[in-house]
Design brief:
The structure is a single chain. The chain is of the alpha/beta class. It has a single domain, classed as Nucleotidyltransferase, domain 5, CATH 3.30.420. The protein has eight helices and five strands. It has a five-stranded mixed sheet with strand order 3-2-1-4-5, sandwiched between helices.
């Protein structure tokens, strides 16, 4: 594992059958978590999907400013092509996805972005699994700002794993 493809998506909700992707961010890091490249895009969705969001999503994505960007964003197919090109540029083998609760993002990728899914390895690095162990076993807690914007969230996921690495390496104590 020489590189990781860190990814975060914002969606209109969590139900992969009825919700849609509204933002994606990806960062390529080396195995030491140094950033090599990044990609970000808001994703256009029809107003009907925005209107159908639950109160939490309407409030969160409204407060973050994401909702107002969606009508002017590129369509999903364009964003998928861009992220595929991004992966092709930085990976010669299937990319290993990394992030918090990355399995949820992977469901949306598999459902809506088939070409992108084909570029991904079946293995994933889920920082949430690390978090569960580090908090319950070692009382190591990483405080996140929870902006629910894709690029901010993925940078925090990388920082969170670095925090856990530092603890394991004896560079940090709790």
């Amino acid at each position: 594992m020489e590189k990781l493809l860190w990814l975060d998506m914002e969606m209109t909700g969590l139900d992969v059958e009825k919700e849609r992707i509204i933002e994606v961010a990806a960062i390529v890091t080396d195995k030491d978590l140094r950033e090599l490249a990044s990609y970000h895009s808001v994703v256009f969705q029809d107003q009907k999907f925005l209107d159908a969001m639950d109160d939490w999503n309407k409030n969160q994505h409204g407060k973050s400013g994401l909702i107002e960007k969606i009508p002017h964003a590129p369509k999903s197919e364009i964003v998928e092509n861009e992220i595929c090109a991004f992966v092709d540029k930085h990976f010669t083998e299937p990319a290993i996805l990394a992030g918090n609760s990355i399995g949820q993002d992977r469901k949306f990728i598999d459902r809506y972005w088939i070409k992108f899914a084909e570029k991904l390895h079946y293995r994933m690095l889920d920082v949430t699994a690390w978090k569960m162990i580090m908090e319950s076993r070692y009382n190591v807690v990483f405080k996140k700002s929870e902006t629910h914007r894709a690029l901010d969230d993925i940078k925090e996921s990388i920082a969170e794993l670095q925090c856990f690495y530092d603890f394991i390496d004896g560079k940090q104590t709790q």
